[in-house]
Structure of Arginine deiminase-related protein:
Amino acid sequence: MKQVTNSVLMIRPVAFRMNEQTTANNHFQKELNGILPAAINAKAQQEFDALVNQLESVGINVVVVEDTLETDTPDSVFPNNWISFHENGDVVMYPMFAENRRVERREDILDILEEKGFVIENVVDFTSAEEDGVFLEGTGSLVLDRANVIAYCALSPRSDEELFIEFCEDFDYAPVLFEAFHTVDGKKDLIYHTNVMMSIGDHFAIICADMIADKKERKMVLDNLRESGKELILISEKQVTQFAGNVLELSGANDKRFIVMSTTAFESLNATQKSQLEKHGSILSANLQTIETCGGGSARCMIAEIFLPKD
């Protein structure tokens, strides 16, 4: 299976703001005071459009779908939490922690993809788990090594162990489960999404190993990554707060590789880390300050990779 794709889905926000329902366990979100909601959304749209333009300019195929005002969906810019696409034609729908995020799931997006020639064979729907208060937020919760069929998951209120194992059984992924902690107001708390502290490319893995407190778990995760042939790029907890783990490798024209991240993430990296990454692709960075500040997510969260076959 391929680890890297040339096609992605992105949702253009129309009502972006800090989502009051997600602040309970996403400690990366902050209020932007003194700015009207319309101005915050306008800034988020500018950042979104600029990132789309950058991706398209290097030959990445971006399917942009406009969010709708009918639903109040402040986090719609992060579609990777509710949907994932797979090479066998499967589409997976995931259960979401915040009630107002559940209305981000839109059937019409599947129709749009089919109109563009993508083949959908089957929809696997885990969303009924919401009734039991159980969540698994897509490729926020799951960091997939698709090529080696290994799924990594940091347990949290948004990433349930049993549901993770069920996903792995259904898709024949080997599960690698662990707990990752970050410091919030002087206390250690579980990180809300795995993809904030780790990213897996074709031949590299970015990870904040220091967040995995249990030494056996840390060794298990790092051993799995090394045995899968990944060059380890270790980042600090401070760099995680600057979204240096929220990174995605994509392929552009002529299969040229790009490592997509925010300007904040890029500026947090030291020279050694940059040169390590640049062996694997050109770094493409975009200013996502408003989206990062209010949304608590960055470049990787904004992109749902499309691995579906084409007709």
